[in-house]
Amino acid sequence: WSRAVDGGGTGNVIISTDKGANWNIIHKFANPVVWIALDEKDVSGNTMYASVVSGKVGGIYKTTNLSAGADATWTLLAAPPRTEGHPYNIRLLKDGSIVATYGDRFANGKFTPSSGVFYSSDGGKTWADRSDPKMLYYTRGLTIDPTDSSEKTWYAATRNAWGGAGEHSGGLFRTTDRGQTWKMVCDCSFEGAESCTINPATREIFLATEAHGLMYAPDTTAKDLT
């Protein structure tokens, strides 16, 4: 999607109230929508965020009147530093802060240093760049560790941005201080990583890789998951 969407494409936020038998459009965006996040703290169900991808007008959009359907108002949040309109995952923390990944952007034959992990404590008005140097070109999935009640432990997956500075940056990274420091816990420089899922009951972790299928580790507390 990074190499195609800047040239066009559209996307919608759609809803089903009958387990997928029928779908209705809530909002039509002029560019692809790659992620949505419903704010569970809003008991009315009216607050939602959407990742809309475009090198020109892309970013994270927010609505607080979702029940208005097609008449709902969507507002573009401030852009995190370095980014170029390619948001991906949006994670809403229990204390009201937001964590988001921005994915790769391929322009003029190369990946741009516009990717990474970004954190906002004021509802998306301002953002802190919480990226490891290996996340600057091709960051993918972000997982908040469900076994950490403080939500300080995150995992971020990266792929290899071929032909440039991020060529051997693929892997799975872990932070225990909300992205202020990171450690690579699984080196995937030979293939790249997409996302991980953690079983909260057992601490098992499953990692989806770009080219070598699903990887597994029995305990997330291990210093090195390789």
Give the SSE map.
Elements lengths: L10 E5 L8 E6 L3 E6 L9 E5 L6 E5 L11 E2 L10 E6 L5 E5 L3 E2 L2 E2 L4 E5 L7 E2 L9 E6 L9 E5 L12 E5 L7 E5 L5 E6 L6 E5 L4 E4 L9
Antiparallel strand pairs: 1-2, 3-4, 4-5, 5-6, 7-8, 8-11, 9-10, 11-12, 13-14, 14-15, 15-16, 17-18, 18-19
Strand line-up in the sheet with most strands: 3-4-5-6
Mean pLDDT: 92
Helix content: under 10%
Radius of gyration: 17 Å
Order of helices and strands: EEEEEEEEEEEEEEEEEEE
Beta percentage is 35-45%
C-alpha geometry: globular
Q: Biggest sheet, in brief?
A: 4 strands, antiparallel
**First-last Cα distance:** 29 Å
Q: Uncertain regions: pLDDT < 50 for 5+ in a row?
A: none
How many β-strands, per DSSP? Answer: 19
Features:
226 residues, mainly beta, four-stranded antiparallel β-sheet
In brief:
The protein is globular.
Would you give an account of this structure?
This protein is mainly β and 226 residues long. It has strands spanning 11-15, 24-29, 33-38, 48-52, 59-63, 75-76, 87-92, 98-102, 106-107, 110-111, 116-120, 128-129, 139-144, 154-158, 171-175, 183-187, 193-198, 205-209, 214-217. 0% of the residues lie in helices and 38% in strands. The strands form six sheets. Strands 3-4-5-6 form a four-stranded antiparallel sheet, with no helix packed on it. A four-stranded antiparallel sheet has the order 7-8-11-12, with no helix packed on it.
